[in-house]
Task: inverse folding
């Protein structure tokens, strides 16, 4: 299971660093590239909305393995798309399939937690983050070595397919989880909102830290990317260690605390506005928000009000909407105000909205060592 998360992260990181090359080969400007990526995001959004039905029909294991393998088969087509419209179609297909793999993998992760009796979700997501870093690093090295994008993606595809086939032999088949009790539309909306607002907090440093360092703190362009690096490093550390915190204090208290830490770190960044304090703040920001999505996946996948995959589907619809909306909203706010004010206000509002969505729909904290699925939460 860990390998599936890791390799899925490698796939994400394997082509995004080569967007400038794709833009130049297709001869499109930034606005056309943005529209192309948005259409790809639309495919993932549609896939997320249908993923609960797919996982419920075919089971978590088969969905995770088959959808993951299908992503790796389609991946090399990114390198040979002749025009922007074809690239958008390829990205939409990848996004659609990856949404199924995402829900399937997390549903299997929830089953693993239930089987071993302790939290593993933050580590699984930590391995995804590690895979993204390694995939990005491999892509950068491929550029330096003059390796064609198509060859690079074929290599990644072969590795991914091998991993999927290996995982298929190790992950046991399980009967789809059946819904117990009344279906909770309120809970589904709450999960969607919580996921959507949480990714505002997680996505802001990825999208805006480089501009913040250059435009606000006055650092040179050579150091602009260090914000993303330290934020990702903090997130990786938090996810690899987060399961111990969840087991000690419970899922929801860990979620609350992590969000509060990330908001305080945001205030530290936008308030002091120096290079050193910004880098420290971004690292702590990553550490705090690292546990949010893994815990939300845990809650969505184990709640007894949902059948197999349906809670996770509601959550992923929210997260993918959030990732699509957040950059544009912060950009508009930064134009109207300033970037520090926009980050401080929007991240704070997103944090409050996330906490309220969790508190009003998922309910009271879960005692240490007790699974959500053991008693349900209303």
Result:
């Amino acid at each position: 299971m860990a390998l599936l998360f890791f390799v899925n992260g490698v796939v994400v990181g394997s082509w995004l660093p080569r967007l400038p090359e794709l833009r130049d080969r297709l001869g499109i400007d930034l606005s056309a590239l943005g529209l192309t990526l948005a259409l790809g995001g639309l495919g993932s959004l549609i896939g997320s909305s249908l993923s609960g039905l797919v996982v419920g029909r075919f089971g978590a294991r088969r969905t995770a393995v088959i959808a993951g393998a299908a992503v790796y088969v389609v991946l090399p087509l990114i390198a040979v798309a002749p025009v922007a419209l074809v690239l958008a179609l390829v990205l939409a297909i990848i996004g659609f399939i990856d949404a199924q793999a995402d829900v399937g993998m997390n549903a299997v992760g929830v089953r693993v937690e239930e089987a071993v009796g302790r939290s593993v979700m933050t580590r699984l997501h930590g391995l995804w983050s590690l895979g993204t870093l390694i995939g990005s690093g491999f892509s950068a090295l491929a550029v330096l070595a003059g390796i064609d994008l198509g060859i690079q993606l074929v290599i990644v595809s072969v590795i991914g397919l091998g991993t999927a086939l290996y995982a298929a032999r190790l992950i046991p088949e399980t009967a789809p989880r059946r819904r117990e009790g009344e279906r909770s539309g309120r809970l589904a909306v709450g999960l969607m909102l919580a996921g959507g607002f949480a990714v505002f907090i997680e996505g802001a440093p990825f999208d805006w830290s480089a501009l913040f360092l250059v435009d606000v703190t006055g650092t040179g362009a050579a150091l602009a990317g260090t914000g993303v690096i330290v934020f990702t490093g903090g997130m990786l550390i938090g996810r690899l260690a987060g399961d111990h915190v969840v087991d000690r204090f419970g899922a929801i208290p860990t979620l609350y605390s992590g969000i509060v830490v990330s908001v305080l770190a945001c205030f530290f960044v936008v308030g002091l506005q120096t290079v050193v304090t910004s880098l420290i703040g971004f690292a702590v920001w990553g550490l705090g928000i690292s546990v949010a999505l893994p815990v939300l996946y845990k809650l969505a996948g184990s709640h007894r009000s949902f059948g197999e995959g349906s809670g996770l589907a509601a959550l992923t619809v929210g997260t993918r909407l959030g990732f699509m909306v957040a950059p544009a909203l912060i950009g508009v706010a930064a134009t109207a105000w300033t970037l520090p004010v926009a980050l401080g206000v929007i991240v704070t509002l997103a944090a409050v909205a996330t906490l309220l969505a969790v508190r009003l729909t998922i309910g009271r904290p879960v005692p240490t060592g007790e699974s959500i699925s053991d008693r349900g939460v209303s």
Notes: Confidence is low (pLDDT under 50) at residues 364-378. The chain has 15 helices and no strands.
